[in-house]
Amino acid sequence: MKKYIAEPFKIKAVEPIAMTTKQQRIAAIKEAGYNTFLLKSKDVYIDLLTDSGTSAMSDNQWAGLMIGDEAYAGSKNFYNLEAAVRNVYGFKYVVPTHQGRGAENLLSQIMIKKGDYVPGNMYFTTTRLHQELNGGTFVDVIIDEAHNSELEVPFKGDVDLNKFQRLIDQVGPEKIPYICVAVTVNLAGGQPVSMKNLKEVKELASKYGIKIMFDATRCVENAFYIKEREDGYQDKSIAAILKEMMSYADGCTMSGKKDCLVNIGGFLAMNDEDLYLQASQLVVVYEGMPSYGGLAGRDMEAMARGIYESIDEDYIKHRIYQVRYLGDRLIENGVPVVRPIGGHAVFLDAKKFLPHVPQDNFPAQALAAELYIHSGVRSMERGIVSAGRDKEGKNYYPKLELVRLTIPRRVYTYSHMDVVAEACIDLYQQRDSIKGLKITYEPPVLRFFTSRFEPLE
User: Fold this and answer.
1) Is 215 a catalytic residue?
2) Which sequence spans correspond to the domains of the chain?
3) Which one of 256, 362, 416, 451 is CB 3.0 to 4.6 Å from 260, fit for a cystine?
């Protein structure tokens, strides 16, 4: 029997959650246009929509809120955050933002010009949009194995160096401002990147003067997988592995709402002084002073403390093992999921779950809606709806059509994971009755947030 680590914390406060009837859930999802983003949280039993900003903060972080220095400029909490980023990640300069997409906006405006190409190890929704809005074209350079949900590959997030080299040869290095490397890769199923690959990317990029910018949102989870799976790292600390990882990047965007264990906040970090000065000027336009960037002092203090807590060995081991527990239960019962299980979520393979529903009828969206109706569990579509449309208005057709069961940090117990597993297993046994959807409303960008649907007859 597999062993899973118990919670390395005890519960000090509780929040009641609603138990609804199936009829109530049918009414709620219909009102929400069969989009789980549009459900009201009061109607959700177990909320696995996202791990972004949904984590539970520690007593130490809550204590930090009480020493918030709400000065408009030069808050002491900013300097605590700056010190945490320097100590844990190793970057010289830090510009706080309200969340990760604020950092993406700054980075894209500063570095991308019209006609540029930005390679990355699989797209992410807001990242690609910011790149496109600034005239860039995203190019996927992840290894092919990442697009196959069944392959058991330890580092599915790795950059394919041949693809990267081909892009350099085709467009020229002067058209590539940076390569965006996500650690881990969300839309591949939370898959990590190996240290070996990061070193190789650094070597190739440096040869052509191309910068490397990490999407570091879940970098601690990536460090755990390097420790677990890569030769030579088993006896190294998470802190040491993380510091080495970051040494191969010129900077990073960070959504503090994930691995920094806070409900709001992010930052752009870098080693280049010129980029820092540009970011410091631009952040004033969109976020606020360079010493607060859209955040209250108390939020910066909580993030600074969360950064240190995130590299605790017991914390990150429990984090990964809890997600793995849910994934293992589903695999043992034949439910198709992305393998190996990633760091922050279990991803149901909707194409294999609902092979009778064509991708144009949004199988992942339909499955997420049906899971909510069946159990009150809220999940998220990560397929054709999330992929959106190209510049000509045509649908992107991602090879992976997924439903993400995203586990908030330090929020739910193994018993909650059992409820989720049993709901998915039960629904899989009834899968032939699930029908596709059609769009009734679609916004021009980031349609997965607010699109509305209705069931096909």
Assistant:
1) yes
2) 22-51+313-455, 59-310
3) 256
Confirm whether 286 is a catalytic residue.
Answer: no
* Cis amide bond preceding 340, omega within 30: yes
Q: Catalytic: which of 215, 250, 299, 328?
A: 215
Best CATH choice for the domain 59-310 from the list 3.40.50.2000, 3.30.420.40, 3.90.580.10, 3.40.640.10: 3.40.640.10
Q: Whole-prediction pTM value?
A: 0.95
Instruction: Annotate 111-131 with DSSP letters as a single string.
Output: H--TT-EEEESS--HHHHHHH
Which tokens hold the place of 402?
A: 């997924």
> Has 448 been annotated as catalytic?
yes
Q: What is the mean pLDDT of the chain?
A: 97
In this prediction, residue 457 has a pLDDT band, given cuts at 50, 70 and 90, of: confident
State residue 297's pLDDT score.
Answer: 98
Q: How far apart are CA 312 and CA 81, in angstroms?
A: 18
User: Considering the domain 22-51+313-455, what is its CATH architecture?
Assistant: Alpha-Beta Complex (3.90)
Catalytic residue among 45, 124, 164, 178: 124
pLDDT > 80? residue 1 = no
124 is an active site residue: yes
Residue range 294-347, pLDDT digits in tens: 999 999 999 999 999 999 999 999 999 999 999 999 999 999 999 999 999 999
Q: Which position among 324, 382, 404, 410 bears the catalytic label?
A: 382
